[in-house]
Write a structure and sequence with these properties.
Blueprint lengths: L16 H6 L14 E7 L5 E6 L1 H5 L4 E6 L21 E2 L5 E7 L2 H10 L2 E5 L18 E2 L3 E2 L1 E4 L2 H7 L2 E9 L11 E7 L2 E6 L4 H12 L6 E4 L15 H13 L3 E4 L5 H4 L6 E9 L5 E13 L20 E11 L12 H19 L3 H7 L17 H12 L12 E2 L2 E13 L6 E6 L5 E4 L9 H13 L6 E4 L16 H22 L9 E6 L1 H4 L8 E13 L5 E11 L6 H20 L5 E2 L4 E2 L18 E5 L18 H4 L1 H13 L5 E2 L3 H10 L9
Parallel strand pairs: 1-14, 10-29, 12-13, 16-17, 21-22, 25-28
Antiparallel strand pairs: 1-5, 2-4, 2-6, 3-5, 7-8, 9-17, 10-15, 11-12, 11-14, 15-16, 18-19, 19-24, 20-21, 20-23, 24-25, 26-27
Length: about 700
């Protein structure tokens, strides 16, 4: 029986859509308390060293200036778990862009002018910011991001690779990448009667509250963090950032509410980035294309402030059959900003390298790239040996090939032309783990016939409000319009942050459980509801804490057609199609948007997003949207998203998997593989900018691997 529009599994318009279009949805710095002041941070202008002197006195005489906070007068903070938040605590400069002061004034203009006028004298030291595979400081950490072991070995890789009928030994490189959300990192902080309230652009207010309580020596109940609307984050807002700490410091120092919005040019140095990665992949296969040996070794950088190791080799542990496997992460600590989460961390760079190497193996074996992947489907997850809860990658590949008309493809590279344009098609697979984190929610029924869901979830623009409301309406069997929802406030029932594609599954399970309990109480209740209504609260600690009996992953396949201009070297995506197996799709309207958005990000990763480390100055040269290029409408002419409906009984009660990041994961490799098919040249370093492509077209030589 088909339910009315708006309940689970059907299209529903975002609940906040009208407010956003009309400008009624307020973001972190769009709240202006009475007497509000403005802060402007001052970044270090050296790559390493210490602050010798700061001209505070001259700046305090400038119009409207209320305070200048430096390591000399800033409040002493508690020791944070995240050392990037130990701000203005000493005179050390660990990297260029590290904050050395913050100026507070009565207007934004006065704060900015005073910050520009602040004189800072430094004592510089030698710095090292260049990542190479032979860097003398490289070490093997215990773990990569996510708690994954840095090294995993199965079987005897060396012997299996040496004995393989077909061998591929290749290297790939990706530059640093930056999140650059539309809304910069920003916060408004206000102290009142010993309590701290912050409105922060964050992917999780619980973590913000806890960090501020620790830093300022408060009980968690004395801090409220609010993130009602967030203009994108892509991982960079998944942990508390300097903006909220500096705003709180400035507010306490001045006794006034304070706003701080990080200037975009400062973002690359203070809010994390995807670290550059150097990949060495070796694939050995038998004559039928079955993989017998697989090695993926990654070198990346981290800062000297804290360790963060991109888990880029982890996808190779689970993707294809590999009886003998070696996956290794190594890292070099450099004088660079601290890397962090960004758009499918680990999977995005790791699968670019793996899926590019699979394309090279398809060429070496003479197999169609789709067929090669189908021949290497594992029966169980190779790394753990667990059965998959569901794995419909083969269906994604087959359905995508049919929809894309893949069978008409001429496998020969460099033969299809349209005037000065070379045309080619490519494919890549994708995977992303299903992550479910304990969360708590409450469901309330009022006398007025309305229902209210309360949970500290965060909607970063993906439609979480809407889907959670759909889940509640579905369980309670009431119209969507009768359900209200409160999210984005640390005073609400605790929930996980918005990251790792875990939001809907984690929050939704708690909402489903609370709504189910409420529905039971309502069914048992006789007569009119009491004046206070009925409320049910539920958490999912027990359910999510059980030992996993199945490996849980989403999968996908991306097909693309590109044109390569032989005159300019420009690569353009003509059409792109993705098919995904991501559990039950709870709202097709918002899901399609997320899939398309993810693939669009993958286009940016493949063709234009890149960041150059200036070795002399120790900073990223592309630090704003004029120099750091992202896709616009003209770059995405035809893009389609489809999915395979899965009935996976080993997930949450909704049967959903994360969809926010699976669309990104395989796209860059699909574009790169299509460029090879168009030109016959293999470019192994992203992004595939016109200068790189034109140089290769002009010399026509095969590309060698980067930097070993």
């Amino acid at each position: 029986m088909t339910r009315a529009p708006g309940v689970l599994g059907n299209d529903a318009v975002r609940l906040e859509a009208r407010d956003k279009v009309a400008g009624h949805a307020r973001y972190a710095v769009e709240h202006t308390p009475s007497g509000c002041a403005y802060a402007w941070p001052v970044p270090a202008a050296i790559a390493r060293g210490r602050v010798r002197a700061i001209g505070t006195a001259e700046v305090l005489d400038l119009p409207g200036v209320l305070a200048v906070l430096t390591h000399e007068n800033a409040e002493r903070l508690g020791t944070p778990d995240d050392r990037t938040l130990a701000l203005l605590q000493d005179d050390r400069v660990p990297h260029r862009g590290w904050y050395v002061a913050v100026v507070v004034a009565d207007t934004l203009e006065n704060a900015r002018a005073a910050a520009a006028a602040l004189r800072v004298d430094y004592e510089s030291e030698e710095h090292d910011v260049r990542l190479t595979t032979g860097h003398p400081g490289i070490y093997t950490p215990e773990q990569a991001n996510g708690g994954f072991p840095a090294v995993r070995e199965r079987g005897d890789f060396d012997s299996a690779f040496a004995a393989a009928d077909v061998r591929v030994d290749v290297e790939y490189a990706l530059t640093a990448l930056h999140n650059h959300p539309m809304e910069p990192h920003a916060a408004t902080a206000h102290w009142y009667d010993g309590r701290l309230t912050v409105r922060d652009s964050s992917q999780g207010t619980g973590a913000v509250r806890d960090a501020l309580a620790q830093l300022f020596g408060l009980d968690r109940k004395q801090v409220t963090a609010i993130s009602e609307h967030v203009g994108g984050g892509f991982g960079s807002k998944g942990t508390p950032r300097p903006s909220v700490v500096l705003a709180a410091m400035a507010a306490r120092h001045t006794g006034r509410p304070v706003k701080l919005s990080v200037p975009r040019r400062q973002l690359p140095a203070v809010v994390g980035h995807r670290a550059p990665t150097l990949h060495h992949i070796r694939l050995g296969a038998d004559a039928q294309g079955r993989i017998t040996a697989l090695a993926h070794e990654v070198v990346t950088h981290t800062s000297r402030v804290k360790e963060f190791v991109e888990q880029a080799a982890v996808p190779a542990r689970v993707m294809y059959i590999s009886p003998s496997s070696r996956t290794v992460h190594r890292v070099a600590p450099l004088d660079v900003p601290s890397p962090s989460w960004m758009r499918a961390p680990g999977e995005a760079p790791g699968m670019y390298a793996l899926e590019s190497a699979m394309d090279e193996l398809a060429v070496a074996t003479g197999l169609d790239p789709v067929e090669l992947r189908l021949r290497n489907e594992p029966e169980t997850e190779p790394d753990s040996g667990l059965p998959f809860s569901s794995r419909n990658l083969a269906e994604c590949l087959r359905r995508g090939a049919g929809l894309f008309d893949w069978q008409r493809r001429d496998p020969r590279p460099g033969v299809s032309r349209d005037g000065d344009l070379l045309l080619g098609t490519g494919v890549a697979a994708s995977t992303y783990p299903v992550l479910i984190v304990p969360s708590t929610a409450s469901a309330h029924a009022g006398r007025d016939g309305r229902y209210r869901i309360r949970i500290n979830a965060t909607d970063i623009g993906t439609g979480a409000r809407t889907v959670l409301t759909q889940i509640a309406a579905h369980v309670l069997d009431v119209p969507l319009e009768s359900v209200d929802i409160e999210i984005g406030n640390s005073d609400l029932p605790a929930a996980s942050l918005a990251g790792g594609s875990c939001g809907t599954s984690s929050w939704g399970w708690a909402v489903h459980k609370a709504s189910t309990l409420l529905a039971g109480r309502l069914a048992d209740h006789r007569g009119e509801l009491p004046p206070e209504g009925l409320t049910a609260t539920a958490d999912t600690k027990e359910e999510t804490g059980r030992e996993q009996t199945h490996a849980r992953h989403a999968f996908g396949a991306v097909f693309t057609e590109v044109q390569v201009d032989t005159v300019t070297g420009e690569v353009k995506v003509r059409r792109m199609l993705g098919v995904f197996a991501a559990g039950r799709i709870l709202n097709p309207r918002t899901a399609r948007s997320q899939f398309i958005g993810g693939m669009t990000m993958g286009i940016g990763m493949a063709l234009m997003e890149g960041s150059t480390m200036d070795e002399r100055f120790g900073d990223f040269a592309e630090c704003d949207l004029a120099s750091y290029h992202v896709p616009v409408c003209a770059d995405v002419t035809s893009i389609e998203a489809h999915w395979v409906e899965e009935d996976d009984r080993h997930l949450s009660p909704m049967g959903s998997k994360g969809i926010g990041e699976i669309g990104i994961v395989g796209t860059a490799a699909a574009v790169g593989n299509a460029v090879h098919h168009a030109t016959g040249l293999r470019l192994r370093e992203l992004p595939l900018t016109p200068d790189k492509v034109l140089e290769r077209l002009e010399d026509g030589a095969a590309v060698s691997g980067p930097g070993r």
